[in-house]
Design goal:
A seven-stranded mixed β-sheet has the order 4-12-11-10-9-5-6, sandwiched between helices. It has a four-stranded antiparallel β-sheet with strand order 13-14-17-16, with helices on one face. Strands 1-15 form a two-stranded parallel sheet. Strand 10, helix 8 and strand 11 form a beta-alpha-beta unit. The termini are far apart. The chain has 13 helices and 17 strands. Helices cover about 40% and strands about 15% of the residues.
């Protein structure tokens, strides 16, 4: 078949491969970014869907506005500030998960050969979304707080990217957090060079330590913000959103029309029914408690079974723990051995857009009980000893 030329560089998606391997009932998977099945607010969501069917059934099943259900857009706007003022409904577009938000931004902003700046390392799904529109990537050096402003300025002196993509809160995969002063420094650089920032925040509500830090979009201009209900409600709902200047939202709406016309109308209305009952804050508190316990269980199990064979970053929130295998050159080399041990992780090389070899691995703790986490670490230790 005469597929697009860029497809020649794309092998089978590792995410898809891992999801298939995870179907084995004996497999313990630390690979996906899966929320816990047992924590989905199933009954409350069922009641919300039922109410929509009873009161809005026909209209909920009809075509709808591309930008999204107006009441849900207004609710989202009410939760946010933009450049130190309340956000407006007209600055919100609902998307089919925040992953679609990334794809729409790529389609709207990128011409083939345009450069995108990324954190080092960065979210695999973002690399995939931007790669599909033939972007060139430049990874900006990072420290424990993320993008180093002086390194960003060095890069901007030679290259003008379309945008910088970053995850300031509990970054995927590293788990790091960008502090308030660093955020302000980064915004100064972006303003100086008229650099567009894409702030992705899927994990921000899953905070286990410390206080919330204002979003980049709250603090300054020229920021596009992506949010999602996947990590705080359920990913199968596939509802996210983009918050940006009205002109950007208008262009994203034009792009989205050609992609799917609109996101699921029924689901948008049901989520709004759930939200207006003010059920989400208590649900998030429950998630924080359970995920924090699982995070601690993973840290303790790594110490017990892997000891000094691993260096790790213990996150203060989010879903992932980032670990480095000591004495190992390439964590990819152990994936097949781990599959034979019925345990999965994501090798670190996939989070770098420059093709580097990595001895790191990303481990998810949210969808496994402490007992399963312990057993998984035993299997990881056995796989490394082979």
């Amino acid at each position: 078949m005469k597929y697009a030329k860029w497809m020649k560089n794309v092998g089978e998606g590792f995410i898809g491969e891992m999801l298939r391997a995870a179907q084995n009932p004996e497999m313990i998977s630390f690979a996906g970014g899966l929320p816990a099945l047992d924590l989905f607010p199933t009954q409350d969501l069922q009641a919300a869907f039922q109410k929509v069917f009873e009161e809005q059934g026909n209209s909920a099943l009809q075509y709808a506005q591309t930008a999204g259900y107006p009441e849900l857009r207004s609710w989202v706007a009410s939760q946010h500030k933009r450049n130190q003022r309340p956000a407006r409904t007209s600055e919100v577009i609902i998307t089919t998960g925040s992953q679609q938000g990334l794809s729409l931004l790529a389609q709207t902003f990128l011409d083939p050969g345009d450069t995108v700046f990324l954190e080092t390392p960065t979210y695999l799904g973002a690399i995939q979304a931007f790669e599909g529109f033939r972007a060139n990537f430049q990874m900006i050096p990072c420290d424990e707080e993320g993008i180093i402003p002086s390194e960003l300025e060095k890069a901007l002196a030679f290259t003008t990217p379309k945008f910088l993509y970053l995850i300031p809160n509990y970054q995927n995969p590293s788990g790091r957090v960008m502090g308030l002063e660093r955020r302000k420094e980064l915004l100064k650089v972006s303003q100086k060079y008229d650099l567009l920032l894409i702030e992705d925040n899927p994990y921000g509500e899953l905070r286990y330590e410390g206080e919330a830090i204002p979003h980049l979009a709250e603090l300054g201009e020229n920021v596009i913000y992506l949010g999602t209900f996947s990590k705080v409600l359920a990913p199968g709902l596939r509802i996210g959103y983009v918050l940006a200047d009205e002109d950007i939202i208008m262009h994203l709406e034009q792009t989205k029309e050609g992609v799917d016309l609109h996101s699921n109308n029924l689901t948008q209305r049901a989520i709004y029914e759930y939200l207006k009952k003010d059920l989400l804050p208590d649900h998030i508190l429950k998630l924080r408690k359970v995920y924090n316990d699982r995070r601690q269980a993973m840290v303790e199990s790594i110490h017990t079974y892997l000891g000094d064979r691993v260096e790790m970053i213990v996150p203060s929130g989010g879903l992932f723990l980032w670990a480095k295998l000591i004495g190992v050159n390439n964590s990819f080399d152990y994936v097949e051995d781990m599959i034979r041990q019925n345990v999965l992780y994501v090798p670190g090389a996939l989070f770098y857009a420059d093709g580097r070899v990595s001895n790191e691995m990303r481990l998810n703790y949210s969808c496994s009980t402490p007992e399963i986490i312990e057993e998984g670490m035993k299997r990881l230790a056995r796989g490394l000893n082979k």
